[in-house]
Amino acid sequence: MHAHPSAASRAALAVRTVAAWGAALLLFFPIAWLFLTAFKTELQAIHVPPLFVFEPTLENFSEVQRRSDYLLYARNSLITSVGSTAPRKCRGPRQALRGSSQTFCGIAGPTIS
Fold first, then answer.
1. Which pLDDT belongs to residue 32?
2. CA–CA distance, 16 with 10 (Å, rounded to integer)
3. Of 50, 28, 22, which Cα lies nearest the Cα of 37?
4. Which of 49, 98, 109, 110 has its CA at a distance of 20 to 30 angstroms from the CA of residue 61?
5. What is the pTM of this model?
């Protein structure tokens, strides 16, 4: 039969739970605020006091694309990251197989007689 947790352990669990939720909200709030601000107009974004209820708009995203060719820069970043990572992903396992009789990417490791 299971023993019921004591009042002290239930209180400790409650304190840990509240602390964990507090830390999570503290870390998540700036990300949520940034996400919400992306859907505000420029005047709504700088409004004092801050607006929590507003009519969302997608105008900012087209403005970013109009001011600079954002998709070009995003594509260049993708090409750079994939181009620098992919060769290393294939080379790493091959080097790990040195001295092994297994194959990887069609290349057999050297056999030791």
1. 94
2. 10
3. 50
4. 49
5. 0.52
